Amino acid sequence: MPIHKALTLNILLIASLIGFDQVLAAGDLTRRTQSLPDLTFGSEESDYAVSQKEYQLETGVAYQLKVIAEGQKECAFQAPEFSQAIFLRKVEAGGVEIKAVTLVELEFEEAGEAEIFFLPIKPGRYPFYCKGLQNKGMEGSFVVK
Question: Known InterPro entries for this protein (predicted)?
Answer without folding.
Answer: Cupredoxin (IPR008972)
